[in-house]
Amino acid sequence: MSTKERLYLFDTTLRDGAQTQGVDFSVDDKIRIAETLDALGIDYVEGGWPGANPTDSAFFSEKRGLKKATMTAFGMTKRVGRSADNDPGLAALFDAESDAVCLVAKTWDHQVELALGCSLDENLEAIEDSVRAITKHDREAMIDCEHFFDGYKANPDYAIACAKTALAAGARWVVLCDTNGGSLPHEVEAITRAVAEHVPGDNLGIHTHNDTENAVANTLAAINGGVRQIQGTLNGLGERCGNANMVSLLPTLLLKPDYADRFETGVPVENLKQLTHVSRLLDEILNRSPNRHQPYVGASAFAHKGGLHVSAVQKDPATYEHVPPEAVGNKRRILVSDQAGRSNVLAQLEAAGIEVDAQDPRIKRLVDEVKEREFLGYAYDGAEASFELLARRALGEVPHYFEVESFRVLVERRFNAMGELVTVSEATVKVAVDGATIMSAGEGNGPVNALDQALRKDLGKYSSWLEDLRLADFKVRILTSGTEAVTRVMIESVDGDGARWSTVGVSPNIVDASFQALMDSITYKLLRDGAPAAL
C-alpha cells in the first residue's frame, strides 16, 4: 500500500485556456482535447461554462464518455436576491452533462461590495446556498475562491470565512485563486498554511496565474503549504500572461524527488512519454507554432551546441540534462550532428499498435524519411494518421486501393440567379480503380470540400466504405514567407463510429497540400476498416 499523499490534477484548458487572446476552440476541438487529457490520466477536466456561449452549451449537451477524468462544468454562485432553485445560471449547470460543478465565488471583501453590490453576509449566504444546490443535484461541488490571496491580505477573517462556508455546505474542494497573478511564492505558501488550519489540505486546491512568471512556482509553494488539488492548463494557456503550465507541473511532480517521493498522482510515470506529443497536439489544434524553449517539451529543451559542452553531454547526459528527454517524450538534439530520432519513431510506432523489431533496417530508413519530411515542413505530432500510413508504407503494410491520375480545381466568383455575389468551387478528379478509369466532378464550399466531394462521388467498389466519412476541421499554416511560401494543411476527419483522425499535407500550393491530407484521410479510413486491396 502506498504511503504517498495523493495530488489531484485539474485541467482548465477548455475553460480558462479558452480565454487566451487568439484562442477559439470548436466543439470538436474540445472533445479531442478532453479525450487526450483523459488518456493522459488527468483527474478533472473543466469543459467550459454551459449557458455562457453556444460552444460550451453544445459541448455539455451530451456525455463525453471519459474513462477516468471527472467532467466538470464551470459557473458562478447564485445571484443575491434569488433562490438557488430559481437562478438561471445554476439551472444551466444542472442541465449540463457533467459529474462535477466548479463555481467561482468572491472572497475579497472589496470585490464583494464593489462588483456584487451586496453585503458580506449576503455573499456568504450565496456561497452556502449554491454549494448545497450542487450537492442536491448529485454533483461534486467545488468553489473557486476568486482573488483569494488579495482578499486574505485585505481581510483574512472574511476570506477564511468564505472558504469555511463552502466546506461546511458540502464542497469537496475549496480552491484558492491568485486571480491577478500578483502573489509571490513565499506569500502563497504562508497564506496556504494559514488557511490549512481551517480547511483540511485534502479539500484545498490552488489556481494560479502567471503575471509575475511565478504560476508554476506558486503552485509548488501551495503544495508545500498543504493544498492537494492542482489546477493548470496545457502549455500555460490563459488570459493575460496565462495560467500555471500543467505541462511543466506534471513532470516536476512525477520526476523530481522532492515531490515524487512524497506524492502520487493519477498520471502513471510512463504516460509522461506522451507529454511532448500532447503539448504539440494542442498547438496544432490551435494552428500555432510550438514554443521551442518551453521546459521539458520544447524543441530546444534538450538541444546542445558544439564544442566541449557537446562532448560532455555525449559522455554523461545527466551533466547538462536535469531529466532524460525520453522520459517526457522529447529527444536530445546535438545541433552540429542530430543523432536523435529512432526512439521517438519507435514510441510512435508502439502508440499506433505497430509491432516491429527495433533493429529492423527499415526503421532507419523510416527515421531518415521522417527527418527529411519534418525538414520540409511536415508535422506528425498532430497528424497521427499520416504518420501511421507513412510507417506502414515503409513496412509494406498499406494495400494499394486506387490511384489518382489527375485533378483540377476551379474557383469562380459570380452573381447567382438571385443577384447575390457568390464564390463557387468546382473540382474534377480522375482515378484508376481495378484497372478502370473513373472521372468525377464535385461542387463544394471551397476547393477542399469540392475535391472531397469529387473524389468520393465515385471510387468504384470503395464508395460504400466512405459513405460515413466527413471532414470535421481544416487548418492552414504558412511555414515560410515570400512568393514561394510553403503551406502546411491539417485535416481532421470523423466517421460514423465516432473515430477521429488527423492528416497532414505540405506544398507551396495550398490546394496540393490539401489534396495530400485528403488522400491520407481516405486511405486511412479504408485501411482502418479493412477494405480489400485493388485487383
Automatic annotation (TrEMBL):
**Record's InterPro entries?**
2-isopropylmalate_synth_dimer (IPR013709), AIPM/Hcit_synth_CS (IPR002034), Aldolase_TIM (IPR013785), Citramal_synthase (IPR005675), LeuA/HCS_post-cat (IPR054691), LeuA_allosteric_dom_sf (IPR036230), PYR_CT (IPR000891)
Write one Gene Ontology MF term: (R)-citramalate synthase activity
Report if keyword Ubl conjugation is assigned.
no
Recite the UniProt keywords alphabetically.
Answer: Acyltransferase, Amino-acid biosynthesis, Branched-chain amino acid biosynthesis, Isoleucine biosynthesis, Transferase
Catalysed transformations (reactions): pyruvate + acetyl-CoA + H2O = (3R)-citramalate + CoA + H(+)
EC number(s) recorded for this UniProt protein: 2.3.3.21
Instruction: Look up the record and give one Gene Ontology term from the biological process aspect.
Output: L-leucine biosynthetic process
Q: Which SUPFAM superfamilies match?
A: 2-isopropylmalate synthase LeuA, allosteric (dimerisation) domain (SSF110921), Aldolase (SSF51569)
Query: Per the database record, which ranges form the Pyruvate carboxyltransferase domain?
Result: 7-273
List the SMART domains.
Answer: LeuA_dimer
* Pathway assignment: Amino-acid biosynthesis; L-isoleucine biosynthesis; 2-oxobutanoate from pyruvate: step 1/3
Pfam families linked: HCS_D2, HMGL-like, LeuA_dimer
* Stated family: Belongs to the alpha-IPM synthase/homocitrate synthase family.
Name the record gives this protein: Citramalate synthase
Which species does this protein come from?
A: Candidatus Phaeomarinibacter ectocarpi
